[in-house]
Amino acid sequence: MVKVGEVAVPPGVGTTQESPPGGGPAAGLLAGLAALPSGPAPWVLVLACDLVHPEQAVPALRAGAIPADRDGACLVDADGHQQWLAGCYRREALDAAAARAGDPQGLALGALLGALDLQELPAAGPAVADIDTWEDHRRWSTHPEGEDDDG
Predict the structure, then answer these.
(1) Are 85 and 91 in contact, with CB atoms under 8 Å apart?
(2) What average pLDDT does the segment 54-70 reach?
(3) CA distance to 41, 80, 99, per residue, from 38 (Å)
(4) pLDDT of 71-91, one tens digit each?
(5) Which residues make beta-bridge pairs with 43?
(6) How far apart are CA 75 and CA 88, in angstroms?
(7) How far apart are CA 80 and CA 54, in angstroms?
(8) At what angle do helices 25-35 and 91-101 cross, to 10 degrees?
(9) Which of 33, 53, 64, 143 is surrounded by the fewest CB atoms within 10 Å?
(10) How far apart (Å, rounded) are the C-alpha atoms in residues 108 and 114?
(11) What is the pLDDT of the chain when averaged over all its residues?
């Protein structure tokens, strides 16, 4: 297990940092991938640090059947958008995408993962919701289960 970024983690969890720090999600994902030990684990679980309820994303990913000919799976929000930072990927597919990507600085996540053949797994709002703004933070702090202000 590897955490990308500067944050305290429990013993046994590896840490790394993209270079330069703050280089974006693609750079962070590639830094985390590079920090993983090589070995027999054929899958990489990717979870964004700003997911509201990552504990809901993991079971949704584990419940989805990924066909043998697919590169992995990612959750899909209610609008049909792939949530690449809530996904489970074949290590070899990520390694190949990393090799094609070149310099990760400023690389868009879509340029890194958009060409992968992914199984889309529909997910409920809290499983794919993230906090990108102070308004998001206020809403999720006030309504942690995702109800809106009128509900």
Answers:
(1) no
(2) 85
(3) 8, 33, 15
(4) 999 999 888 889 999 999 999
(5) 90
(6) 9
(7) 19
(8) 120
(9) 143
(10) 9
(11) 84
